[in-house]
């Protein structure tokens, strides 16, 4: 057994040399630590004598973004690796292939996806991803359906739930998304220019009621095995391909939490566009593209999820006429509520998004933050009543109309 310690880049190279592949004996290995996330080390190991490369991701025993004062269990590395393997089985080629792992060192050796770009960065750079909605719709439909009671044996599902109990990571979400933005909390992080908005979040009881209900759903509804943090910083893309990484927040929770994460991060990018484009016609074009993507992600997911119901259902009672429509309606409402909560947390909570934080003009940045909060709050407050994605896009539009230019 190897004693856990964070690897140095040189140790990562030594480890890579002991692996059965992909490197050969004459490899000349180079290593860079490229982790730009909030929690882990990520080593990029390349062979100077060939085009071969790997990624070694290692968990730290604390939250990197805060420091050692915030301890975290290393079990998340095992959970991340096991869900990557499960997702690879369900959606081959849509997550990095796992080559090797070491649970004592809390690390996973995986496929290098550096020929793709992190979607958040791609969007900020102005790229378009016309196949993204189909791809992510397929990924979410298959991973959520086949890990739920609809698509897998219900006793095996209970066994699987046991393997994916992830309390430290869930607590981060419970605190950062479903609690701290709505009270004074040390972790909260927002600009003084929006103190009025933060104060409004703390005193809005109708909003608190909806957040309490969403929080309860997150805490108690073990519907399917979630990725758990499916934002655009956890998705690698090209114009032809989509690959999902970083499922260390995986656990059995409500399906809408994953779908909502995707929609929220597209909407966060959408509200950032006015701060990025001076030219009105370019901006309009890009805004339309983003809203189309929001609509298409839901539609593609919905279509594929319902198709699996027809072809792959294992629960006979779920064939009862009317049940599918009610199930998907509730899943849609959850999606919209969680999307709203995820927008709010990225403005006033600990961890932000580059889409908004990199807007250089302070007034434009503040405007984008106010827009994100207006949309987020509208989604949260209306989540229990919406029925269609068209209605949601109308809600977005009316929420934005309330924000002063
Ligand atoms: N399989 C991979 N291939 C290439 N780069 C990767 C891979 N996994 C992670 N990375 C890089 O490392 C960064 C951080 O990885 P991530 O898994 O998101 O870490 P964290 O859990 O700390 O957020 C990503 O933004 C990406 O740039
Ligand atoms: C203290 S962790 C904050 C935040 O970071 C995670 O995202 P990522 O590791 O992908 O940057 C997750 O969203 C957590 O809520």
UniProtKB/TrEMBL annotation:
Domain annotation Aminoglycoside phosphotransferase: ranges: 31-264
InterPro entries (UniProt xref): Aminoglycoside_PTrfase (IPR002575), Kinase-like_dom_sf (IPR011009), Methylthioribose_kinase (IPR009212)
Keywords: Amino-acid biosynthesis, ATP-binding, Kinase, Methionine biosynthesis, Nucleotide-binding, Transferase
Binding-site residues, ATP: 40, 57, 111-113, 246-248
Chain positions recorded as substrate binding sites: 229, 345
EC numbers, comma separated: 2.7.1.100
Example GO BP: L-methionine salvage from methylthioadenosine
GO molecular-function terms, A-Z: ATP binding; S-methyl-5-thioribose kinase activity
Enzyme class: transferase
Superkingdom of the source species: Bacteria
Catalytic activity line of the entry: 5-(methylsulfanyl)-D-ribose + ATP = 5-(methylsulfanyl)-alpha-D-ribose 1-phosphate + ADP + H(+)
Involved pathway(s): Amino-acid biosynthesis; L-methionine biosynthesis via salvage pathway; S-methyl-5-thio-alpha-D-ribose 1-phosphate from S-methyl-5'-thioadenosine (hydrolase route): step 2/2
Coiled-coil residue spans: none
Listed NCBIfam families: MTRK
Family: Belongs to the methylthioribose kinase family.
Function: Catalyzes the phosphorylation of methylthioribose into methylthioribose-1-phosphate.
Record text on subunit structure and interactions: Homodimer.
Name used for this protein in its record: Methylthioribose kinase
Organism: Paenibacillus polysaccharolyticus
């Amino acid at each position: 057994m190897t004693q856990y310690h964070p690897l140095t880049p040189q140790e990562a190279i030594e480890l890579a040399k002991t692996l059965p592949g992909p490197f050969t004996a004459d490899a000349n290995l180079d290593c860079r630590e490229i982790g730009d996330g909030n929690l882990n080390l990520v080593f990029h190991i390349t062979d100077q004598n060939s085009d071969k490369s790997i990624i070694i991701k290692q968990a730290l025993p604390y939250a990197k973004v805060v420091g050692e004062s915030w301890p975290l269990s290393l079990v998340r590395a095992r959970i991340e690796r096991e869900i990557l393997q499960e997702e690879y089985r369900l959606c081959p080629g849509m997550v990095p292939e796992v080559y090797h792992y070491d649970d004592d060192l809390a690390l996973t050796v995986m496929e290098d996806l550096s020929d793709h770009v992190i979607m958040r960065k791609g969007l900020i750079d102005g790229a378009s991803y016309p196949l993204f909605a189909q791809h992510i719709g397929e990924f979410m439909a298959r991973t959520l359906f086949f890990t739920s009671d609809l698509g897998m044996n219900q006793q095996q599902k209970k066994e699987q739930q046991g393997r994916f109990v992830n309390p430290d990571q869930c607590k981060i979400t419970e605190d950062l998304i479903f609690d701290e933005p709505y009270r004074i909390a040390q972790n909260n992080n927002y600009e003084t220019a929006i103190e009025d908005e933060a104060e409004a979040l703390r005193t809005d009881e109708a909003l608190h009621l909806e957040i309490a209900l969403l929080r309860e759903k997150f805490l108690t509804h073990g519907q399917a095995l979630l990725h758990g943090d499916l934002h655009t910083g956890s998705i690698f893309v090209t114009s032809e391909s989509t690959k999902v990484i970083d499922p260390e927040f995986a656990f059995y929770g409500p399906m809408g939490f994953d779908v909502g994460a995707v929609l929220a991060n597209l909407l966060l990018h959408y509200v950032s566009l006015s701060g990025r484009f001076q030219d009105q016609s370019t901006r309009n074009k890009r805004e339309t593209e983003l809203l189309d993507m929001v609509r298409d992600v839901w539609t593609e997911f919905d279509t594929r999820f319902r198709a699996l119901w027809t072809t792959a259902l294992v629960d006979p009672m779920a064939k009862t006429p009317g049940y599918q429509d009610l199930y998907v309606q509730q899943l849609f409402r959850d999606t919209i509520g969680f999307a709203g909560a995820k927008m709010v947390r990225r403005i006033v909570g600990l961890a932000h998004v580059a889409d908004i934080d990199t807007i250089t003009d302070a007034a434009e940045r503040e405007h984008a933050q106010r827009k994100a909060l207006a949309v987020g709050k509208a989604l949260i407050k209306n989540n229990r009543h919406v029925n269609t994605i068209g209605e949601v896009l109308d809600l977005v539009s009316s929420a934005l109309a309330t924000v002063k230019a």
